[in-house]
Write a structure and sequence with these properties.
Layout: E1 6-7, H1 12-17, E2 21-22, E3 26-31, H2 38-50, E4 55-59, E5 74-77, H3 84-98, E6 103-106, H4 110-116, H5 119-135, E7 139-145, H6 151-160, E8 163-170, E9 173-181, E10 193-196, E11 199-202, H7 206-214, H8 230-246, H9 252-267, H10 271-280, H11 283-291, E12 293-294, H12 301-316, H13 318-321, E13 330-332, H14 334-343, H15 347-353, H16 359-373, H17 380-393, E14 398-404, E15 420-423, H18 429-445, H19 450-458, E16 468-474, E17 478-480, E18 483-485, E19 488-493, E20 510-514, H20 519-522, E21 531-534, H21 546-551, E22 556-561, E23 566-571, H22 572-578, H23 584-587, E24 588-591, E25 594-597, H24 600-604, H25 608-623, E26 627-635, E27 641-650, E28 671-675, E29 679-680, E30 684-687, E31 690-694, H26 696-700, H27 704-718, E32 727-732, H28 748-751, E33 756-760, H29 776-784, E34 787-791, E35 799-800, H30 802-807, H31 812-815, E36 826-830, E37 838-845, E38 850-857
Helix pairs in contact: 3-5, 4-5, 5-6, 5-14, 8-9, 8-11, 10-12, 12-25, 16-18
Length: 859
């Protein structure tokens, strides 16, 4: 900075010692006692008052105010408990609104570390606030308690601030030692100075220097000083209290207060989840969690769900708990993500994203941040902890799973919105670390994916604090030569929203199960099928006949190929030929020399079905809400098995199915569509404002690229904020397919405003309307309250009147004039705009699995 404007501290001698106070100086006073800061801030305030300079004071700590009562300052009272994001945004807004050449004062920074339970977040805060103050040519006073913070915070502050001053007191006399003075130097600047009568004098005699400084604790050489942050101290205190509790010397009050502190510090601040954590976690559980944490911060929703589910079963049914596979997961705290985005210069871009109102620009900026996050570097101390964790796992396969603060909460599942990455974890330590770091980058970068951002915006969550913690789990399974996989995996719901037969009790739950890794169960698979079973009558197949059951059976298995060091797919018959130790009779039936995955013995001849029902009922009762879980099953021998609970979250379905009376005696020419199932969602009767119909023949003839364009056009049509209406989407094959030849490849962001989604079994021979029950796609539909309908025109009782639909005027070109080549593909009927007195009504009864769309007189 040339032609630097000279400011003042209010103490001319200090100004001289520091070679002037410069515009942009962030001055940090390090003290043993807050009162040692008072003389400096007093002179600071007196100067500002005498010169009629503006002072802005940020107040957030519990200590008394730093400024005199008669000081006319602009005071902003902040609450760090509202979260880091809210706190920093308020401060940045104040700085921006006040402009340049303003004087600032902050309460003691050590209070922030206490409120956020983290030195890492204190360092993060300073690295953001200090440069912003510097840009505005401000003068800012900070104070920090010495020897009460780890190097994570201290180094961040020392690296970022322009001026660091150590203040000592000895025999009621103050001394000052400049530690850092940016772009200034004098022969005596970095000497110890005594402060007498408002004047600083260098201490030049060794007898005084040695006496004063030798009495000052030096944690870097004194082994008796173990400098911990609030995070570490809290866990040390918890361990001490546990020891006292074992000796019956601990008070109940102390235990309760510390437990509350630990939950809010490391587990959750969500009021719904807090109650469950408070009920089921004791201090020893919380200490065990702390022992397996990397970094600091919250562990996130997915980790909470997994730990809570296990603990609920341990407490409420200790016998059932013996059937659970032991887990040895690690948890990467949310603070690490924050440090990552700051260290890799993504924070400001992420901040500006919140202020962007243009959708196209918004998502382009998000793509830029995504790319940067994919190439970022990690803090050195975190890499060292990652190395230790990988050393613990050895070469066992692991999975890095997202566990954000908003994920798996009541009301918002985030199903499949963030990435999870398998690491086969083979190779040298260096190779395994590289692979793991890349997996972490992928999960972190997924916070900027189009789907995740669109979901947050649609759910009104975008401006809420969202940080990414990580759950690192050992992959449940067994080695079979060069292959590794669990014998079975899947998802289960404590409430079954798909009652395809009157014998089904929806309150007994339902599972979607596969052989091998569970990705075949949670992803929408277009080239294969999975096994869906109602737990009260598991052998009742939604496919109907035995012939169809054999036809719609799983043939592809996901495994980890350790030789290729990757997650891959193989045919089940190949698995059978290569893996002799699998107890196949539990999972498969022999049919004309081929193995068919029916899971018959697992579901009917073992205790697995009973255990799953009991697990789901216990969790449902504890959550006071329907739940869905992810699990694996591995057999120790032909009888004994272990269930691994990988995930648990509130199921967004309300847990109630209603009966709707469907009108009788309708004229056949008035019926547009009729189905006998599958229907999934809430029973409904409603008027339809718009039908978007994708013509099967026209869509089939499109080249691949134009099929993807159809999905994008649908997104544009359904996301028009001007149109708040009931929209029904009808298309051939499978909506959301990853294979456009099997259906329109839309994602959730493109159909989130649709009310009814209808799949018609056309365009591909033998393609059954897919239940998708238990997949991320299914969870999206439930999450958004979208009713799913499947129509098979060749099935008795199913019907779609394409002729009548296509006779209605097509509004496509009126709405999308730039896409003339798609007019025959996408047929849009806007009934409120059509002349006449009829509009379509939908009646859908999910209990009876009957749905009908018919023309009726408009009210």
């Amino acid at each position: 900075m040339n032609d630097i404007e000279i400011f003042s501290s209010g103490i001319p001698s200090l100004d001289e010692t520091l070679q002037g106070i410069h515009a942009g100086d962030n001055i940090v006073f390090q003290v043993d006692r807050i009162q040692d800061f008072h003389p400096f801030v007093k002179k600071y305030c007196e100067f500002l008052k005498s010169e009629n300079k503006k002072l802005v004071y940020f107040r957030f700590a519990e200590h008394p105010s730093f400024i005199p009562d008669d000081m006319n300052a602009e005071i902003h009272i902040l609450d760090p408990k509202e979260g880091f994001e809210q706190f920093i945004f308020e401060i940045l807004n104040v700085i921006e609104n006040n402009g340049k050449n303003v004087y600032y004062l902050f309460d003691c920074l050590s209070g922030l570390a206490a409120e956020w339970y983290s030195d890492r977040m204190l360092g993060n805060f300073f690295q953001l606030a200090c440069p912003y103050l510097y840009v505005y040519d401000t003068i800012t006073y900070f104070v920090l308690l010495r020897n009460q913070h780890t190097s994570i915070a201290v180094n961040a502050i020392h690296h970022t601030a322009q001026v660091i001053l150590d203040v000592f007191s000895e025999s009621e006399k103050l001394y000052l030692l400049p530690v850092k003075v940016f772009q200034r130097f004098s022969p005596t600047m970095y000497m110890l100075h005594s402060y007498e009568n408002n004047v600083f004098h260098p201490v030049t005699k060794s007898i005084f220097l040695a006496k004063i400084l030798s009495s000052t604790p030096q944690p870097w050489i004194d082994v008796n000083i173990d400098r911990h942050d609030t995070w570490s101290e809290t866990f040390f205190e918890a361990q001490r209290l546990l020891n006292e509790k074992n000796q019956c010397t601990c008070s109940e009050k102390d235990a309760t207060e510390l437990k509350t502190h630990l939950i809010k510090m490391a587990i959750t601040r969500d009021e719904h989840l807090y109650g469950l954590c408070e009920k089921y976690f004791d201090i020893s559980n919380l200490v065990d969690i702390g022992k397996r944490m990397i970094g600091s911060g919250l562990i996130g929703g997915k980790t909470i769900g997994m730990l809570l589910a296990r603990r609920i079963i341990e407490v409420d049914d200790s016998v059932l708990a013996e059937s659970l596979e032991t887990h040895d997961s690690f948890y990467v705290g949310s603070d690490v993500f924050y440090s990552y985005i700051i260290q890799n210069e993504c924070w400001w871009e992420r901040h500006h994203l919140r202020l962007c109102n243009n959708n196209d620009i918004f998502y382009k900026k998000a793509e830029v941040i995504h790319a940067k996050l994919m190439k970022g570097n990690f803090p050195h101390d975190i890499i060292e902890q990652f190395k230790q964790m990988l050393s613990y796992f050895g070469q066992s396969p692991i999975i890095v799973r997202s566990s954000s603060l908003q994920e798996d909460a009541y009301g918002n599942s985030f199903s499949g919105k963030y990435e999870s990455v398998f690491c086969a974890n083979q190779g040298t330590p260096e190779e395994r670390l590289k692979s793991f770091l890349n997996a972490v980058r992928i999960v972190y970068a997924s916070t900027m994916s189009h789907e995740a951002l669109s979901y947050r915006i649609h759910r009104g969550l975008f401006h809420q604090d969202e940080q990414m913690a990580l759950l690192v789990q050992r992959v449940s399974g067994e080695y079979y030569g060069d292959l590794y996989f669990p014998q079975a995996a899947g998802v289960a719901y404590s409430f079954n929203p798909f009652v395809w037969n009157k014998q089904i009790d929806p309150n007994q739950g339902v599972i979607r199960i596969v052989f091998g890794l569970g990705t075949r169960a949670v992803d929408r698979i277009d080239d294969d099928y999975t096994r869906v079973a109602a737990l009260n009558i598991p052998m009742l197949r939604p496919e109907g006949s035995d012939e169809k059951a054999r036809r719609y059976t799983q043939r592809i298995v996901h495994v980890l190929d350790l030789k290729k060091n990757m997650h891959t797919a193989m045919s089940f018959e190949d698995i059978v030929s290569r893996c002799e130790m699998i107890p196949l009779e539990i999972f498969a039936s022999i049919d004309t020399s081929l193995h068919t995955l029916t899971f018959e013995k697992l579901l009917t001849k073992t205790l697995f079905t009973d255990d799953m029902k009991q697990i789901l009922q216990l969790l449902h009762k504890a959550y006071n809400n329907a739940v869905d879980i992810e699990f694996t099953v591995n057999f120790v021998d032909t009888k004994e098995f272990k269930i691994n609970l990988l995930q648990c979250r509130p199921f967004q379905f309300t847990g109630e199915l209603l009966h709707i009376e469907i009108p009788e005696n309708l004229l056949q020419e008035d019926i547009l569509l009729e189905t006998n199932g599958p229907l999934i969602g809430h029973s409904t009767s409603d008027k339809i404002d718009r039908i978007i119909y994708i013509c099967p023949e026209e869509y089939s003839n499109l080249p691949l690229a134009r099929k993807y364009s159809v999905a994008q056009i649908i997104g544009t049509l359904t996301n028009d904020k001007k149109d708040q209406q009931t929209t029904m989407l009808i298309g051939p094959g499978r909506w959301g397919s990853r294979m456009p030849e099997l259906g329109v490849p839309v994602n959730l962001s493109e159909i989130k405003n649709v009310s009814i989604l209808c799949e018609v079994a056309e365009m591909h021979e033998g393609l059954n309307p897919d239940l998708s029950l238990g997949t991320h796609f299914f969870n999206d539909l439930v999450d958004q309250g979208i009713l799913y309908m499947g129509v098979s025109p060749l099935k008795a009782g199913d019907f779609i009147n394409k002729k009548v639909l296509l006779e209605y005027p097509n509004k496509f070109l009126e709405l999308q004039p730039d896409y003339k080549n798609y007019e025959k593909v996408i047929h849009i009927i806007d009934f409120p705009r059509i002349c006449g007195k009829t509009c379509p009504n939908i009646y859908a009864d999910t209990i009876e699995q009957k749905g009908i769309v018919f023309l009726a007189k408009r009210d």
